[in-house]
Amino acid sequence: EFTPVFINFSAQTTANQTQDLLDSKLEKRRKGIFAPPAGKRFSIMVDDVNMPKREEYGAQPPVELLRQWMDQQGWYDRKTLEFRKIIDIAFVGCMGPPGGGRQVVTNRFLRHFNFIAFPELQQDSVATILRTILNTFVSAFLPPALQGTVDPMVNATIDIYSTILRELLPTPAKSHYTFNLRDMASVMQGCLSADPKEMMGPKDLVALWIHENERVYSDRLVSTEDKSWYDALVRRVVGERFQTPYEEVVPDG
């Protein structure tokens, strides 16, 4: 039976931190051999494998530590300098394509893995999914006058997400700037919580949509510059997709 162990790499993760975390979960079986508690095996899930910052000559120390286990079945105790063989563990890695703060990982490490890759959904497919969900909700619970807001809202949601994904890339100082389809789903889920008593016209639903985008995206931004950029993006998309000035939807905005 495998017991999951989760590790999240970031640009600041070091090899020593990684080794200390894993060593703290292992027990000594016999001289020089360490393993999970008796009767268990560890499945170690490493998220954002390619986030650690590169050294001057291109190495990523946390990745090299894991590669040492894959090549030599262990690593050295930093105090005694004795080799610690580690058994009954397996690694699962997860990473996104290189870009922003994500690095290219050495093939010496990647050759130890079997790969499962998921291509991005095409925008047409995403639009069909979101349109079906939103149409069903509006038809069942909201006034008929809001039906015409569905297509512009779906297109605006995709516009916001695609632009943020392209422009707000993760960096060592902003390693949490990682966006995926769950963010669009979260915006849509928020819109599906609309109170029918409050949704009197299209502008009410658009205002809720603006609020949900603010919650999902803007609240994660850490600099005034990024927030100003985001505000300008929303204002432009609202004007283009809903054919309504932002100030009419959010008078105090």
The whole-number mean of residue pLDDT values reads 92
What's the alpha carbon Rg, rounded to whole Å?
24 Å
Beta-sheet strand percentage?
5-15%
Secondary-structure content class? alpha/beta
Task: Write up what this structure looks like.
The structure is a single chain. With 253 residues, this protein is α/β, with parallel strands linked by helices. It contains 9 helices and 7 strands, in the order E-H-E-E-E-H-E-E-E-H-H-H-H-H-H-H. It has helices spanning 15-23, 61-72, 107-110, 123-141, 150-167, 181-191, 202-216, 224-242, 246-249, and strands at 2-8, 27-30, 33-35, 41-47, 74-76, 83-86, 89-94. The strands form 2 sheets. It has a 4-stranded mixed sheet with strand order 2-3-6-5. Strands 1-4-7 form a 3-stranded parallel sheet, with no helix packed on it. The radius of gyration is 24 Å and the shape is elongated. The chain starts with a strand and ends with a helix.
Would you summarize the structure shown here?
Helices cover 44% and strands 13% of the residues. With 253 residues, the protein is an alpha/beta fold.
How does the SSE layout of this entry go?
Blueprint: E1 2-8, H1 15-23, E2 27-30, E3 33-35, E4 41-47, H2 61-72, E5 74-76, E6 83-86, E7 89-94, H3 107-110, H4 123-141, H5 150-167, H6 181-191, H7 202-216, H8 224-242, H9 246-249
Parallel strand pairs: 1-4, 3-6, 4-7
Antiparallel strand pairs: 2-3, 5-6
Helix pairs in contact: 1-2, 4-5, 5-8, 6-7
Structural descriptors:
253 residues; three-stranded parallel β-sheet; four-stranded mixed β-sheet; 7 strands; alpha/beta
